[in-house]
Amino acid sequence: MRYQIVGDTMPVVEITFDAPGEEMYTQSGGMSWMTDGVAMNTNTKGGLMKGLGRMFAGESLFMATYSAQRPGASIAFSSTVAGRILPIDVTVDNGLICQKGAFLCAQHSVNLDIVFTKKISSGFFGGEGFILQKLTGSGLAFLEVDGDLVEKQLAPGEVLKVDTGNVVAFSPQVQYEVEMLKGLGNIVFGGEGLFLTRLTGPGKVILQTQNIAEFAGRIARFIPSGK
């Protein structure tokens, strides 16, 4: 199979199948368009328990699998907000841990599982709940990035502190925890909330420049209350 990413502001990834039987899957509602020669099958992919786990991780209970019926058939998956679509070779990266909503689509050979944060404080205060997503297996996966993309390679012991909403994904060996801001003045007047995500290397970290939760909060101020 081949792919191309089309568009800049609201991009799509368009997949062209080279042989019958090639498959891509996405969360329910993730497909934008497809040609003749692609069959759709909706299921929980891995069973009910895996489907429920995905729900807790911010994805849908059901996943849609699209199978090529003939060579040359194509299908497109689009981002939900302005930003980038990032292709990930799961085989090369040896897996990746993602935040809620980052997963867009993947080849059938890529596994999408849930993973629990190691520290309770990360679950309560990290903004991502107790559950994140983990990509394993082999093949290509595509992630949604809100705004622009920034990649960093952390050295062993190197620490990066990030607003949780700006984290897209990181290597499995990167340590993930949440720490409280120090200083009463910073907490009350800093405007950054009480907590930051602390990522400790070694490993790759993928960041996004837009925090969709903060963006939605700003938009909400301009929505009439109806009173």
Descriptive report:
A six-stranded antiparallel beta sheet has the order 5-6-3-10-13-8. The chain is mainly beta and 227 residues long. The termini are far apart. About 7% of the residues have low confidence. It is built from five helices and 19 strands. Helices cover 15% and strands 46% of the residues. It has one domain: Mitochondrial biogenesis AIM24 (Double-stranded beta-helix), CATH 3.60.160.10.
Structural class: mainly beta
| The CATH homologous superfamily | Mitochondrial biogenesis AIM24
Structure annotation, total helices: 5
- What does the overall shape look like? globular
Uncertain residue segments: 122-130, 184-191
- What is the beta-strand fraction? over 45%
If strands are numbered along the chain, what order do they take across the biggest sheet?
Answer: 5-6-3-10-13-8
| Overall pLDDT score | 82
Secondary structure tally: strands: 19
CATH-defined topology: Double-stranded beta-helix
Distance between the first and last residues' Cα:
53 Å
What level of helicity do the residues show? 10-25%
CATH class: Alpha Beta
Q: What's the CATH architecture name?
A: 4-Layer Sandwich
Gyration radius, rounded:
19 Å
Number of folding domains? Answer: 1
Order of helices and strands: EEEEEHEEEHEEEHEEEEEEHEEH
